[in-house]
Amino acid sequence: MQGWESIRAEVLSRIQTRLWPPGGLIPSEEALALEFGCARATVNRALRELALQGVLERKRKAGTRVAALPIRKATLDITVIRHDIASRGQSYSFHVLSQGLSHPPLMVAARLGLPERILMIHLQTLHLADGKPYLVEDRWLNPAILPDPSPDFTRQSANEWLVANVAYTTGDIAFSAEPANLAEAAALNVPPGTALFITERATFAGDHPITWVRLSHRPGYRLQTVL
Amino acid sequence: MQGWESIRAEVLSRIQTRLWPPGGLIPSEEALALEFGCARATVNRALRELALQGVLERKRKAGTRVAALPIRKATLDITVIRHDIASRGQSYSFHVLSQGLSHPPLMVAARLGLPERILMIHLQTLHLADGKPYLVEDRWLNPAILPDPSPDFTRQSANEWLVANVAYTTGDIAFSAEPANLAEAAALNVPPGTALFITERATFAGDHPITWVRLSHRPGYRLQTVL
DNA sequence: GAGTGGTCTAGACCACCAA
DNA sequence: TGGTGGTCTAGACCACTCC
Predict the structure, then answer these.
(1) How far, in Å, CA of A125 to CA of A128, rounded?
(2) A171-185 pLDDT tens trace
(3) Chain-chain contact of A197 with B217 (C-beta, under 8 angstroms)
(4) Nearest CA of chain B to the CA of A178: how many Å?
(5) Residues A169, A172, A173, A179: is their CA dihedral positive or negative?
(6) Measured between CB atoms, does A9 come within 8 Å of chain B?
(7) For D4, which residue's CA is nearest its C1'?
(8) What burial class does residue A83 get, using C-beta atoms within 10 Å of its C-beta: 0-12 exposed, 13-18 middle, 19+ buried?
(9) Nearest-CA residue of chain B relative to A21?
(10) Beta-carbon neighbour count of residue B45 at 10 Å?
(11) Are B227 and A171 a contacting pair at CB < 8 A?
């Protein structure tokens, strides 16, 4: 093995064997470049990667330390719902439950930084995998970002229209567990109060609020990833 | 603004304005380096970053394309429980509910790739924030990795002993929502069936199984991050 | 075969910040 | 104020893969 990956592996190995203990200072990039017989840029690439991963902590002048309490970073892939279902080999379909213009709940307006009294597009959509309920989408859209006339969300889901037509740059996402309310229970065909996995996301293009969405997943849903 | 970050910003801007549409090919690194008046390595750094983020798709010879269906990557920080609580300004404490040697459930053994009939250390711990139940930890430990005599997990939590003494390299993590079982309900002081946010994690050092743990969070827990 | 991204080099300048 | 990481350059070779 060669290249910066071999250096990353060697550094990780020295950390695991406690040759470089947690909290300890490791040699400078220059020293390591000399030891490994490579350019400093190559060492930099390896150490930068490990710092991103949370294994190392780097500061100018202070040097590079092994993280005392490593903060592992897990990465989750946020995909289009259709892809999520299709990649499991199931057929995808969706059904718009309701659609209209109304005032958003206080929480939604607050999350998007919009006045409470604004009128937003409210969409409730059921997504199905192999014809069975997969998740309920409760979405509030900022009408200011839509073209005139507004797209037909019964043909192309709002989810996909947005990724195709609004290249968003920022947002935040939250996961939680909540009991199914009456609407969710009816849509997913489960008893009210059933534990549901909830994804909530607010999306902005720059400072411009785009949409807020809440996804209520069917029971048994798992969000998985590797560390 | 200068440097590779300005190039990343410019590329992002061209994507958002549809100058470079989704699925479209963008100029080669060499061409962009010429246009921006910088070295190819600088362009490479910017494009590589965007590819990691899921905005671009890169292939040798084929060139660089704007991702047609962008797969956004959310990163979650996996911390030590004590830190999680302390960073919210609350005081941390924990209490071992039960401790012993027994045969793991089939699912735990399977996840770790261990035979079902092996004896593992089984620990149930309640973690508290400001003296109130915060989460229940249900952990199975591979005894093979423990020193003799075994550490006293009533003094230092298994969670922290592991990060301090076993530098693990791999693992997987899953999030779900489940109704509280009787033990969880009693520990967290909530009615059975309450929707709980569950984190399950399997940890390995190389191919060597270390531990499997299930964290049942108190109601209202949210896992949040920015995109 | 040829064009692209992936990586490496040797050198350089700079920003930061602990001593 | 000196040492460290952060970044950039100009050039080079290679691996991959589409044509």
Answers:
(1) 10
(2) 899 999 999 999 999
(3) no
(4) 5
(5) negative
(6) no
(7) A61
(8) middle
(9) B164
(10) 17
(11) yes
- Interchain CB distance below 8 Å, A177 and B225: no
Closest chain B C-alpha to A193 CA, distance in angstroms: 8
Mean pLDDT of A195-206: 93
Q: How far is A205 from chain B (nearest CA, A)?
A: 9
Q: Is B218 exposed, middle or buried (0-12, 13-18, 19+ CB in 10 A)?
A: buried
pLDDT in tens, A90-129: 999 999 999 999 999 999 999 999 998 999 999 999 999 9
More confident residue, A159 or A49: A49
Answer yes or no: is A60 CB < 7 A from strand D: yes
Q: Quick one: tokens of A150?
A: 């507004």
A15, A72, A170 ranked by CB distance to B227: nearest: A170
Q: How far is it, in rounded angstroms, from Cα B76 to Cα B81?
A: 14
Whose CA is nearest the C1' atom of nucleotide C5?
A: B60
Which tens digit of pLDDT belongs to each residue from B35-64?
A: 999 999 999 999 999 999 889 999 999 999
Q: CB–CB of A79 and B69 under 8 A?
A: yes
Say which residue the tokens 């507004």 belong to. A150
pLDDT for res A1: 57
Given this model, what pLDDT does residue B168 score? 64
* A132 vs A148 pLDDT, higher one: A132
Band (pLDDT 50/70/90 cuts) for residue A35 is very high
Is B143 touching A (CB cutoff 8 A)?
Answer: no
Q: In what order do the strands lie in the sheet with A208-217?
A: A92-102, A120-129, A132-141, A208-217, A195-205, A170-179, B222-226
If you average pLDDT over every residue of chain A, what do you get? Answer: 91
**Distance separating alpha carbons of residues A170 and A107, to the nearest angstrom:** 19
A107 CB burial (10 A radius; 0-12, 13-18, 19+)? exposed
Contacts of residue B75, Cβ cutoff 8 Å, sequence gap at least 6: A73, A74, A75, A76, B225
Would you place residue B10 in the very low, low, confident or very high pLDDT band (cuts 50, 70, 90)? very high
pLDDT in tens, B175-196: 999 999 999 999 999 999 999 9
Contact A115, A109 (CB under 8 A): yes
From the list B177, B178, B226, which residue is nearest A172 (CB)? Answer: B226
Tokens representing residue B22 in the block: 């989704």
Q: Is A167 on the interface with B (CB under 8 A)?
A: yes
What is the pTM for the complete model shown?
0.88
